[in-house]
Amino acid sequence: MMPKISRYAIILLLIISQAILLPNLYWMVFDKPATSPQVQYSPIIKDFVFAEKSGNDTRYHDAKGNTYDRKSFETLLPFSYYYDLDKWGILPDTIAGIPISISFIRRNTQFVRVRPVDLNTPLINLNPLFESQSDYTRLEMPDYLFRIDKKFEFLDSRSNTVNDSLSRIFHEALMEQGFRFPARIIAGNPTTRKSFDEGYFIIDAQNRVFHLKQIKGQPICSNTGIPTDLNIRYISIREHARREFYGLLVTTANEVYLIGYDNYQLIKLPTRGYNADNMSLMLQIDPIYKTVRIFNKQELYCTVMDQNYNIVDTFQIAMSPKSERFCSKVAALLFPLSVERTNANTDYVLFNIQFAGWLAFIGIAVALLIAVFIKKRVYQENLRENWIDFLIVAISGLFGTLAVLLIRPEPWD
Fold it and tell me: Which residues contact 29 (CB under 8 A, 6 or more apart)?
């Protein structure tokens, strides 16, 4: 009995290895990712315009079907291609009655993006707290990193020791505002590559959102008053010279809000069709419009708003899912099961067993026929004695066939 258990253990390991490696090798050879069109809203013709790649060529057109060459297409999007238009001497002086210049466009253009991987990634509970009113023009990386668990602590990044006196000052500042430890979310923009610093937004154990900054070495902490029943899942802070909002937050219900500078008021963005676990969201702001794009490889939703967040126009497109492609159907026949170890939507290492769908049953049937034929005709085995082999094939298809044929029972009997 023990030898057979050893054999089946080796077969199981071989099946798992195949389920990880063979589908990956297959898609490396046959996968041709579908490219979605680049969609933007033109302030010139007040309509959506598209750039669609096909091989080495790109087709430029608008929603009405009018086609353009590349230069004509760029003239429709002066807020995206202002450097080219300025070089050609055709950058408009005004658009919709607004005086236009390169410096004006740059000051009033902003991008904020949230990807699934941003929400699904391991985090290190150590953060730099910058001096928000430095005497110098550039932000400097501090010597201390902070963490918030049962209390607020500053750690010396060189000696890895806790600075008790500094930690106590910031701990008490949070406590005075009603903060309850530990922190659920600590969200900031921990880089010196920004023109100013707005500190961190911190969610405590009771789902209250606090704003913490360091000014002249002292803590400035406030309870933002953001509703605790939003069930916030993610906060992204991105400082920008426009100073309209600190950043955005995503809730567990896939709602997205901007955190405004005016008493932390929330501005809800249109997020129809949004699923934060598998779709990216991008907010693009120019001097006239604010555009929300929600997209993945199968869908794209585009909503254009004016400067007061009133909806101006919408567009959506559904692309053929990967499962409908011929190579996907062949993969379902060959690989009834696959083990997903990595995913573009997360930085975590996975071990997800995925079933290929109804086509897998056809592949399993073929794999069973192959196993029966070879075992009976080539190996001349007694099929009844090794019926477990066929059960394995019925579950794992081609992987099981290869495993039970390679690891034959005779040496183990």
Answer: none
